[in-house]
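Late entry, written up from scratch paper. The run itself happened at the end of the previous shift, but nothing got recorded in the book at the time, so transcribing now.
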Amino acid sequence: MMLKVIIVGAGINGVTSAIELKNRGHKVFLIDPGPLPHPLAASTDISKAIRAAYGADEEYTVLAERSIPIWRKWNQELGVQLYHETGVLFLRRQLMEPGGFEYESCKVLEKRGHKFERIDSAKLRERFPAFNAERFQDGFLDPDAGYVESGRVVAMLAERAKSRGVELRQGVKLAALDEGNDRVKGVVLEDRDRISGDAVVIAVGAWTPYLLPFTKKFLRATGHPVFHLKPRNPELFSPERFPFFGADISTTGYYGFPLNQGVVKIANHGPGREMSPDSPDRTVTPAEEKDLREFLSGAIPALADVPIVHTRICMYCDTHDGHFWIAPDPERPGLVIATGDCGHGFKFAPVLGELVADAVENKPNPILQKFRWRPEVRAGEQKEAARFRPE
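Output as recorded:
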């Protein structure tokens, strides 16, 4: 049965959902304040991580295994390399041990037949000289990983959506859901225009708890610092010598990417600061910069005092357990919420649209049980392992 679906938000969740729903024969409206990619959206950046290492959580590893071949295929279809397969280097100051992110990742990767390589201080010194080999004594390199140029991906997928017949309306903002007769029957825009439909998908990321205040009980918008640094010796930071990395990430939160567009991007993944994505305080603080400098001086000395040429705050939409939230609202028939990236969603872009479309169609999909509507999960119950899933 053909549905008329209104998708609010043209970030990575919204645009992939629009394409998939259109491919399934539905009539699709995609609305966004614009411009695209939206300058404040989490999707809009020079890089996002692609990896299958997920600690002990094999379900995310399986999703990543499905996604990575499609990223390669998109490179071919789009005629431009947006996914860069640099591998990922996860490092630890102490030896890997059971229960740790790195150890459990290796265990799952080995079980699933991935060809990764253990990295000790000697290998690190020889092959990845930008890192302080005295600081890190253990880790692993997974070659089937890398990063994607995320802002460019969103822009190209938006064009693909339009070419497939999705009706894209930029420059419009959601004012409210149009509710009546015990269901959501469309959206009301700020200019008072209404669009009616059979289903509404809210895919606005960190704006969700502000646009839909009833979701504040289980969704929280947090800001996380991102730094672009200009190295003095760029040859040290080529992908071959400096792959996408996480450095003692379960304790420091720091991860980063090789030289791209003339800069090395380093970011921090942790609890973050709760804030609205429209907050005037959406800037990196002196304390966050000081913390970065301290980390770099010990971990990557060649970056310790180089110029920071750009900073931004990357917004997450966090759930209390660190898992995505892709589910119909049981109290508002006709409404599906597709958010809860928790800072690790972009890598799954090739399968996100399928997950959201299945939620819209009420089609059975086992992984959606993990991302179900679950207000019973309360703040403070978040598992430690779930907090460290760097984007």
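The radius of gyration is 21 Å.
(Scratch paper discarded after transcription.)
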